[in-house]
Amino acid sequence: MCLAIPSKVIEILENDMAIVDTMGVRRKVSLMLLKEKPKIGDYVLLHVGFAIEILSEEDALESLKLFEEAINYEELSQ
Question: What is the pTM of this model?
Answer without folding.
Answer: 0.85
